[in-house]
Amino acid sequence: MHKLLPASLALALATPHCALAESPSDLATLRQEIATMRAAYEARLEALETRLKAAEAAAANSATVPGATAASAAAVVASAPPPPAPVASGGGANAFNPAISLILSGLYTSTSRDPEHFAISGFQLPTDAEVGPGTRGLSLAETELGISANIDPWWRGSTAIALHPDNEVSVEEAYVQTTSLGHGASLKAGRFFSGIGYLNPQHAHTWDFVDNPLAYQALLGTQYGDDGVQLTWLAPIDQYLELGAELGRGRSFPGTDTSRNGAGMVALTAHTGGDIGASHSWRAGLSVLRAKAKDQELDAMNTAGNSVTNAFSGRTRVWVADAVWKWAPNGNATRTSFKLQGEYLRSTRDGDLVYDVDNVASAADYRAVQSGWYLQGIYQFMPGWRVGLRTEQLDPGSSRFGANAAALDLGNYRPRKNTLMFDYNPSEFSRVRLQFARDRSREGVTDNQFFIQYQMSLGAHGAHGY
Amino acid sequence: MMIRNALIALLAAPLALLAGPADAALRVFACEPEWGALVQELGGNLVEVSVATGALQDPHQIQAKPSLIARARNADLVVCTGAELEIGWLPILLQQSGNAKVQPGQPGNFAAADYVRKLDVPGQLDRSQGDVHAAGNPHVQTDPRNIAQVATALGTRLQQVDPAHAAEYARRQADFAQRWQQAIARWSAQAAPLKGAPVVSQHKAFTYLYDWLGLKEVAVLEPKPGVEPTASHLQGVLSALKGTPVRMVIHAAYQDPRASEWLNTNAGVPAVKLPFTVGGSEGAKDLFGLFDDTVARLLAAGGKR
Ligand SMILES: [Zn+2]
């Protein structure tokens, strides 16, 4: 029950300031405002008089310059540009239309192993987990429709709707966010990608590779999004320091959506960053996510080598350490630039596991500590052309299955993968990418994965995060 | 309980810090060096100016990096070009700053391009024409007459956001206006021999400068705004220029000079690097130096003939 308190506190704070503004002590403020207005008008009159004098002086001056030069100079001075045209109105009922953007993306995939049998050895993942290279051949990749606008002076709203290749539609993000809290604070409510780590809040079309790293796939279900509230606060100091707190229902892996009044997810984030000279900038952070799961169905392999379905109930805590460093000569990334980023994820699952739900259904204590990391570098060697390299590895860690220890063992194989990416961006709005990966996610199996991808953005020019 | 206490602490800390000294300088965040320099002229020691970008950076392609977010967080006034020049980075900077004072529509948000007449306003909005700016060409600072108009509006805005020092801003504004008008008259007289001179630009960055001095832009090296010149496009420009001799090819300090140098080598057209903004050259130390140097460089390359 007490978990609702922070949320209601945050909502109370989000109430627009106008409710507080009309207190009786504001008379003095009003008086001061009138005085200010008077001062401003007097100052403007004074400025106009000065300009008039200056123009007269200038005209007199140019008269002393000999011959034709003087004439043309006077002409140039005289032809001061006319005042700006009023801001375009018109548009009628459509004038308040929000910014709309559409991302179109397509993919050709070739793999040496059938993606149907993709798995990450040593990691029990949900039956519907979005892992691996997807489908072979030509396919439409995710199409994303983004709509955003200010709602009123206090809120803005944004949504991202994903149209999947299998004709399904899903709401990736749909949230409202305060614009007027001030004091460095901002509150978001609705559905959004969690602010943990570096890659997690980023939309797929801004990734530097076709797919998200294995550590994100195995420990966060590719990307953690939830329904809830998020409060961020930026410290009032010259150093960038942003703290964030999130409460959510725990809708997706590593949590599960169940009927409960409280929060199924809590996350805390801290990020800091800055510049080193004119050419370097960086950001680093530490986040933790805690999610509850109940009867979460997991695909697993038992010690006999058979596929089984287990069910996990308990808590998962995922720590994410992230760092990114960017270089561009004099801060101008038009011609060449370099970006190095890496993240380390560590997950602890505590609770109980029902082994082989459909047949044996034997429940026992369960604890697993697993981790993974990736490191990637992206080098833009000339305008529009980039090359990238990513290396990554997972550690199945240690796990305790209690009474089921004889039937289950995650082994000690470390899944790993190396990826080479090459892309061409004819403009800010279009991209064609080639990617080759040597994937060793499955013990004893090497999968050579080859992708050709295009990503095109239509409509509103979205601003990009760091 | 723990979370609630943490939240209260999180919210109380900034409030405590806000109750600091009342007479501190007005903190101004300027997107480009020219507006930083103008704020300094109009605000003197009443303002503390932080400039987001340098003269060697392409103002279209800045990133919303942590240091900029931190500076936007603490600003009382944000002074930018507007007209969508900063569309790829400023909106996210302002969103992440959590600073209510500087959001669009607030007195703390000032867009210079709102106060001048804009040129190159596209009749048709279509990205097949390259990275066109819907509101018109945003590089308004290359015409000193625009600077004068922006200075008037900015002076008024400074008085509005810092009313305690309104009289001082008014005095500084009047003083600047007088010196600036005299300087414009001087530059206009000096640059008179350039009137009508045909020139080539690398990017459509100098529309306002040409409008002021009467230069004629006969070709642009970028095939479309924001698109790098290709070898074949350069060849096309070269053959088009065979019949029409031009006096110079102009690029901004932040741009890669290779395309201009190519034209210089292959057609003997003098290549001129203009500072484009304050800090873009040795001479462009402030706004006056920016135009002193711009006019001098233009005259040196194409004053005769
Ligand atoms: Zn431009």
Question: Any descriptors?
Answer:
heterodimer; A: alpha+beta; 47% strand; globular; B: 305 residues; alpha/beta; 10 helices
Helix and strand topology:
The complex is a heterodimer of chains A (466) and B (305).
Chain A: H1 4-14, H2 18-21, H3 27-63, H4 67-78, E1 99-111, E2 125-126, E3 137-140, E4 143-150, E5 155-163, E6 169-178, E7 185-193, H5 214-220, E8 225-234, E9 240-248, E10 265-276, E11 280-301, E12 307-327, E13 337-355, E14 362-382, E15 385-400, E16 416-427, E17 430-440, E18 447-459
Antiparallel strand pairs in A: 1-3, 1-4, 1-18, 2-11, 4-5, 5-6, 6-7, 7-8, 8-9, 9-10, 10-11, 11-12, 12-13, 13-14, 14-15, 15-16, 16-17, 17-18
Chain B: H1 2-18, E1 26-30, H2 33-43, E2 47-51, H3 66-73, E3 77-80, H4 90-97, E4 109-111, H5 144-161, H6 166-190, E5 198-201, H7 207-213, E6 216-220, H8 231-241, E7 248-252, H9 258-267, E8 271-274, H10 287-302
Parallel strand pairs in B: 1-2, 1-3, 3-4, 5-6, 5-7, 7-8
Helix pairs in contact in B: 2-5, 3-4, 5-6, 6-10
The structure holds zinc ion.
InterPro entries (chain A): Porin_dom_sf
Protein name (chain A): Zinc-regulated TonB-dependent outer membrane receptor
Coiled coil (chain A): 31-65
TL;DR?
Chain A is of the alpha+beta class.
In words, what does this structure look like?
The complex is a heterodimer of chains A (466) and B (305). With 466 residues, chain A is of the alpha+beta class. Chain A has helices spanning 4-14, 18-21, 27-63, 67-78, 214-220; strands at 99-111, 125-126, 137-140, 143-150, 155-163, 169-178, 185-193, 225-234, 240-248, 265-276, 280-301, 307-327, 337-355, 362-382, 385-400, 416-427, 430-440, 447-459. A 16-stranded antiparallel barrel of chain A has the order 1-4-5-6-7-8-9-10-11-12-13-14-15-16-17-18. Chain A is globular and about 95 Å long. The model of chain A is unreliable at 1-24, 60-83 and 85-90 (pLDDT under 50). Chain B has 305 residues and is an alpha/beta fold. In chain B, the strands form two sheets. A four-stranded parallel beta sheet of chain B has the order 2-1-3-4, covered by helices on one side. Chain B has a four-stranded parallel beta sheet with strand order 6-5-7-8. In chain B, helix 2 links the parallel strand 1 and strand 2. Chain B starts with a helix and ends with a helix. At the A-B interface, helix 1, helix 3, helix 4, strand 8 and strand 9 of A face helix 1, helix 3, helix 4, helix 5 and helix 6 of B. Chain A: This is Zinc-regulated TonB-dependent outer membrane receptor. Chain A: It comes from Aromatoleum petrolei. Chain A: InterPro entries: Porin_dom_sf. Chain A: Keywords: Coiled coil, Signal.
